Every structure is written in structure tokens, then in C-alpha cells.
């Protein structure tokens, strides 16, 4: 299967930023979508929304990307993947001195280990293809420290470090690797927070950027992108 026809795998694809990315691809391409998240009911609702947006087909996989053994049971080659978007994430707003080791491990697992696990499973498939693309959704917190979200910041630093190293190892293989360092982006995690959504990044803009990356010639790769709200950071941050 050619890169233009290959499917798009999106983790955390049942809601928030991941679902917004999926909808952009549903409207703008004929690619099949593969949505991965933990809750089957949320995935079923997301599939309906993507099909309504024009998706050619939507596969849903209820799986925890932090569980490497569970991923072993999935046949990724049969999905004909060409694009992997490691979007699944979790945000803990808590000072470091109040953060438990268990809370840190959970942040690291979802925000860094999950991307490592899934990418490791899919890389053998990508290496047999002429071209493919891996996009890791990192954060502005991958680039500098933030108070009251230290565990999240540490985990996102780890994800960016992994992305940079992976890019180095895959240079010249036809597998492009991109980190998108997101500023504050509107998603379901902001529900209940006193903030104007118009002050945050439109999550569909993230999808539009990834769509553009998929349309680059195989001679080019955007290694890192920083996307910020036009008005700058807002509270809480």
C-alpha cells in the first residue's frame, strides 16, 4: 500500500485533541483511521463522529498503551499504517512536594512510556514500507520547567528526548519523526476550568499541521514544531 493510502493510527483518539485530529483527516483525506483509547464506549462514539465527518473507515482498538503485553496481541501490520500519532496524555496539576511516586509513575507511563511502547510495536511494519511518519504530541513543558505540574513536565521532557533520539536513529530510513510541542490547547481536560476557550489553541489546528506534515515530499521533515496560543500563555500555568 502506498503512503498516500495508508491508515492513520491515533492514540487518545476517542476525545479531545486526538478526536479533533481524527476529524481533520476524516474530512480532508481518504485514509482509514485507527483510534486507540482505553474505553470502548468512548471509542464507539468517536467512530460515529468520524464517519459522520466523511471518514472512509474507522477501526477502534480498546487498549492501554502503557501495557506492552496487551499491545503484543494486536496485529498492526493488518491495519496498513503509514502515520502514527502518539497523542495519548495526562496532565497532573500538583506541586512536586505533594506528588507521590505513584502519581509520577502514572504521568510518565501515559505521557512517555505509552509512546515508546506503541512505536516499538509499529516500527517493524514501518521499516518494510517505502515511507511513513511518526508524530509525538509533546508540550511547551517539554522545553522548560513549570511549577505545580512538575511530574507532567518531567514526563514531557522524557517524551521529547525520546522523539529526538528516535529521529536520529531513523534518519535516512524513510521514517520521518516529528515532535509537536503544544502550548495550551483546548480539550476535554479543560472542562470545569474558568478559562475562555478562545484563549487556547484550537485543537483542529493540531490536526491541520499533521495533515500538512503528511503532504510534505519524502525529502523533507519538520523535526520540531512549537505551537502556542496567539495571545500567549493563560492561567493556570
The percent range for strand residues is 15-25%
Major sheet summary line: 7 strands, parallel
Number of helices: 6
Secondary-structure-based class equals alpha/beta
Helix content: 25-40%
Ends: how far apart?
44 Å
The chain-level mean pLDDT equals 95
Strands across the major sheet, in which order?
3-2-1-4-5-6-7
CATH level-four homologous superfamily name: NAD(P)-binding Rossmann-like Domain
The top level CATH class name: Alpha Beta
Total domains, how many?
1
Characterize the structure shown.
The protein has 237 residues and is an alpha/beta fold. The protein has one domain (3-227): NAD(P)-binding Rossmann-like Domain (Rossmann fold), CATH 3.40.50.720. It contains 6 helices and 7 strands; from the N terminus they run βαβαβαβαβαβαβ. The protein has helices spanning 16-28, 40-52, 68-72, 101-126, 150-170, 203-214; strands at 7-11, 33-37, 58-62, 81-86, 132-139, 175-182, 224-227. Strands 3-2-1-4-5-6-7 form a 7-stranded parallel beta sheet, with helices on both faces. Strand 4 (81-86), helix 4 and strand 5 (132-139) form a beta-alpha-beta unit. The longest helix has 26 residues, at 101-126. The termini are far apart.
How is the secondary structure organized here?
Layout: E1 7-11, H1 16-28, E2 33-37, H2 40-52, E3 58-62, H3 68-72, E4 81-86, H4 101-126, E5 132-139, H5 150-170, E6 175-182, H6 203-214, E7 224-227
Structure keywords:
alpha/beta; globular; Rossmann fold
Describe the structure in brief.
With 237 residues, the protein is an alpha/beta fold. The protein has helices at residues 16-28, 40-52, 68-72, 101-126, 150-170, 203-214, and strands at residues 7-11, 33-37, 58-62, 81-86, 132-139, 175-182, 224-227.
